[in-house]
Amino acid sequence: MNKLKKDAEKEFRKLSKKEQDRINRLKRIPVPAPGTVFDKKKNAPRKKKWDETEE
After folding, report:
1. Is the separation of the CB atoms in 18 and 34 below 8 Å?
2. In degrees rounded to 5, what are phi and psi of residue 41?
3. Considering 7, 10, 28, 45, which has the largest number of Cβ atoms within 10 A of its Cβ?
4. Smallest Cα–Cα separation from 30: which of 49, 12, 13, 8?
């Protein structure tokens, strides 16, 4: 891991747990369950973690 990532992790740990949870929720993207239609009106969709390495 490079120095920049280590510094970012240290700063992230300094944040409050509430703020960490908020940021982690923002990194997740909605994904429909297998074999179902994506419909926001019904149940909330499942979430999948956003892959920051792919660009």
Report:
1. no
2. -70, -30
3. 45
4. 49
Matching residue, tokens 């792919």: 54
pLDDT digits (tens, 9 = 90+) for 1-52: 699 989 989 999 999 999 999 988 888 877 766 766 655 566 665 666 666 6
Rounded CA separation 43/37 (Å): 11
One-letter identity of residue 26: L
Amino acid at 12: F
What stretches of the chain adopt beta strand conformation (E)? 28-31, 46-49
So what's the pLDDT on residue 12?
92
